[in-house]
């Protein structure tokens, strides 16, 4: 069963591949990366992989946010003056605005690590210049990154007769439901649905199912599962 969280929806990268961009400021190069991760271990492994690839770089700064509730947040200045790299990068991740379920803008980006590699160009940027550069580097790479909502779906099972399964599945799909599968058993068929994990959504689902089946079928709610809505 999926671990329960306060949030039932957040935003993630829509690709498993790293996204990269290049920013040049006063001859310094800032190579920015973002990568989707599911754990702190994965985030640190990606940071180390970038560090090995750019082993001659002066600084490899990083920040990451993990979890639906964004409860894991870490950052590193990697030798830059304290507070001029890692924290601005982290703030850029936390402040990223995306569209929520109701169409309003929200800040819920998570399961992401950002790494910025800096090659010093010989001109000092100062503390303020570094903050702006590392922030802009993360913003720029996020602008190039595909994002997608990720929702916690409550799973429900419906037991129906063999002859009803196909029609009911089509009706549910036409109403916009996510049908995760249909199992044909010896004494009937079992449909598994995934609906947005919210009390009002479950109530609406129960009412629509009662209408579709003339009250002959009851949905049995089970665990939950996170699904990308791509």
Assembly type of the shown chains?
single chain
In round numbers, the mean pLDDT is 93
**How many individual β-strands?**
12
Strand content: 35-45%
**Biggest sheet statistics:** 5 strands, antiparallel
Structural category? alpha+beta
Write down the overall geometry. Answer: elongated
Supply Rg.
23 Å
> What is the terminal separation in angstroms?
22 Å
Order of helices and strands: EEEHEEHEEEHEHEEHE
Characterization of the model:
There is one protein chain. This protein is an alpha+beta fold and 230 residues long. It has 5 helices and 12 strands. It has helices spanning 40-53, 86-94, 126-143, 162-174, 199-212; strands at 9-13, 19-25, 28-36, 59-66, 72-76, 98-99, 105-106, 112-119, 147-160, 178-185, 188-196, 219-228. The strands form 3 sheets. Strands 1, 9, 10, 11 and 12 form a 5-stranded antiparallel beta sheet that branches. A 5-stranded antiparallel beta sheet has the order 2-3-8-4-5, sandwiched between helices. Strand 10 and strand 11 form a beta hairpin. The longest helix has 18 residues, at 126-143. It is elongated, with a radius of gyration of 23 Å. The two termini are 22 Å apart.
Question: Summary?
Answer:
This protein has 230 residues and is of the alpha+beta class.
Helix-strand blueprint:
Elements: E1 9-13, E2 19-25, E3 28-36, H1 40-53, E4 59-66, E5 72-76, H2 86-94, E6 98-99, E7 105-106, E8 112-119, H3 126-143, E9 147-160, H4 162-174, E10 178-185, E11 188-196, H5 199-212, E12 219-228
Antiparallel strand pairs: 1-9, 2-3, 3-8, 4-5, 4-8, 6-7, 9-11, 9-12, 10-11
Helix pairs in contact: 2-3
């Amino acid at each position: 069963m999926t671990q329960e969280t306060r949030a039932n929806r957040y935003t993630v990268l829509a690709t498993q591949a790293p996204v990269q961009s290049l920013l040049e400021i006063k001859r310094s190069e800032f190579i920015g990366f973002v990568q989707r991760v599911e754990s702190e271990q994965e985030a640190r492994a990606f940071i180390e992989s970038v560090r090995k690839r750019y082993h001659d770089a002066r600084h490899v700064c990083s920040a990451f946010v993990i979890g639906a509730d964004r409860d894991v947040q870490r950052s590193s200045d990697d030798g830059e003056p304290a507070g001029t790299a890692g924290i601005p990068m982290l703030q850029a991740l936390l402040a990223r605005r995306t569209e929520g379920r109701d169409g309003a803008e929200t800040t819920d980006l998570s399961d992401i690590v950002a790494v910025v590699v800096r090659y010093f160009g010989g001109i000092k940027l100062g503390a303020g210049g570094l903050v702006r550069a590392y922030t802009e580097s993360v913003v720029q790479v996020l602008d190039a990154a595909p994002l997608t909502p990720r929702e916690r779906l409550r799973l429900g099972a419906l037991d129906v007769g063999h002859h009803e399964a196909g029609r009911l599945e089509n009706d549910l799909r036409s109403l916009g439901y996510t049908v995760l599968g249909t199992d044909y058993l010896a004494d009937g068929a079992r449909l598994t649905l995934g609906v947005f994990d919210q009390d009002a959504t479950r109530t609406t689902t129960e009412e629509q199912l009662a209408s579709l089946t003339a009250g002959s079928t009851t949905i049995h709610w089970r665990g939950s599962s996170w699904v990308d809505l791509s």
